[in-house]
Prior knowledge:
By secondary structure, the protein is an all-alpha fold.
Amino acid sequence: xxxxxxxxxxxxxxxxxxxxxxxxxxxxxxxxxxxxxxxxxxxxxxxxxxxxxxxxxxxxxxxxxxxxxxxxxxxxxxxxxxxxxxxxxxxxxxxxxxxxxxxxxxxxxxxxxxxxxxxxxxxxxxxxxxxxxxxxxxxxxxxxxxxxxxxxxxxxxxxxxxxxxxxxxxxxxxxxxxxxxxxxxxxxxxxxxxxxxxxxxxxxxxxxxxxxxxxxxxxxxxxxxxxxxxxxxxxxxxxxxxxxxxxxxxxxxxxxxxxxxxxxxxxxxxxxxxxxxxxxxxxxxxxxxxxxxxxxxxxxxxxxxxxxxxxxxxxxxxxxxxxxxxxxxxxxxxxxxxxxxxxxxxxxxxxxxxxxxxxxxxxxxxxxxxxxxxxxxxxxxxxxxxxxxxxxxxxxxxxxxxxxxxxxxxxxxxxxxxxxxxxxxxxxxxxxxxxxxxxxxxxxxxxxxxxxxxxxxxxxxxxxxxxxxxxxxxxxxxxxxxxxxxxxxxxxxxxxxxxxxxxxxxxxxxxxxxx
Length: 515
């Protein structure tokens, strides 16, 4: 028995370099057509024609992975739109749970059933096609988008998308692969906006598009013998690797959408600066963490008034967070771990209010940041480990003082990870400094021109700063003019990276394993 979603179209299957080259060329051509269609669509005055072309471009983009994957996406879109209509007519809890169950069943069939069947022999009474199920790329993301629409409809928010608009929302090409997880109240007004290209949007979007094997070896090539410092640095290294990969991808997606006038919500905001675990989850994978907060934590926490209940909900919500990534014990334990971190932080706040500790604010902030950074980094051990045994051994090692005299990784690794982490903080500081500097002197330069006030003497330091800030602002605001060639080269490189990957992605989200 052969089902169409079991054989992805447009993905190299390892049958030869020629076939892979042809498929990659076809994919690049399709991507170029998608961008062209979007550029044409935003110049049209007819709203429905524009939306139809935008949807066709998004479907063409997604079809590069598989026509079968596209069929599942369309089926999910039609199902959720119909469920939304039924729910809008009578928003009852029963209808909401049925709608949620339909989405969970569909997602579970593709995402959670294959791991359960891995240990089942192929010669059993189970149909053969069950052993060849492939999850559509990005399904976890657009399923959550469909669920958010159903939750918002149940809350009787003013949402009245047409079928065309809802399908476009589900298949929006910059986000369909790996988020950010969008919400219809933010996207619908933008789909209905008649304005065309905007110079400011193009400038901001182009700036966002411009631009760790040691960690992998530490997990993949070592089965035991880690020292305490090894585990801590592996956690830190993988956390930054994950951040650079996924935050970088989100940054580019937001920039690509902005080129066409679509403003998406931010997905990362300096998470490694967080002073507490609670703050971390308002800065890391924000579209998903806010989804978990709004649709799981808040409703469950409000369902009971017991003092202990919110702590239980913290753990439950974060367990769902881990399960969303994959049906694997390590991911579930990662979610439970972060739930317990949030509980510990909340309990610590209560103790602090009852027995305040007096010490300098800067010292308290430093200790809070250091503890948050270390505990979050240790949590990545569960996320990255191959199995539960490896995760528990590594995690236990980090808390054994005797193991900090043991070093098992290459010497270069002990240099690379700290340099990378320190470099990240230095770069962020320099960015903040440049922005503050350009804002201060650039504003003074503009006011001087508008009010006819003479500039400060060119030989003075303030005068030099004003001229330099004005030039900096000029080039940064118009950077897209001279970054066109860079963006095109990067687009080709990224397309090659994406379209030459296999379809059986072992870890969701998809982009975690691409770059």
